[in-house]
Predict the 3D structure of the following.
Amino acid sequence: MGDPLSSLCRGEDATRDAGRALGEALEPGALVALEGDLGAGKTVFVRGLAEGLGHDPEAVASPSFVLAVEHPGGRIPLLHVDLYRLAAGAGVDDLGIDEALGRGWVVAVEWGERLPPTLRHAAWRVILGPAAGHGDDARAVTILAPA
Ligand SMILES: Nc1ncnc2c1ncn2[C@@H]1O[C@H](COP(=O)(O)OP(=O)(O)OP(=O)(O)O)[C@@H](O)[C@H]1O
Ligand SMILES: [Mg+2]
């Protein structure tokens, strides 16, 4: 694994830019696990990621009542998953993650901490958190390549 890439993202646009840069670099079948608290900027990052994959970023919303949203087409199709509402103890097996990866889609998972270890180890990890001393609109964004 390479060194982690950490960025200070001042404002939503900077986080989106970081997502776009990763999206432009990803290859088919890549899994991205987004970690961070409520409001950390996971969905904002996925908007940029989607753009880097050739999708309309505005089509990416917080999946509020569904756990997974498909974005077919683009340079690489995207499955956007949000595990926040996954019932405790429920499996992620039914969300179609393995199938999508097998078809060469990119899969981006919010609350990626909740992925089973096998999937998590295969994932790019994007960790978003507050950037102490830089104000409310700054985020520390760390990207780790798959182990
Ligand atoms: N530097 C920043 N990067 C990302 N978002 C920022 C930044 N500064 C402020 N924000 C704001 O923080 C919020 C991030 O919301 P977002 O929905 O992306 O969070 P989330 O991590 O997906 O939360 P949830 O766990 O509810 O899905 C937005 O309102 C955004 O405008
Ligand atoms: Mg979100």
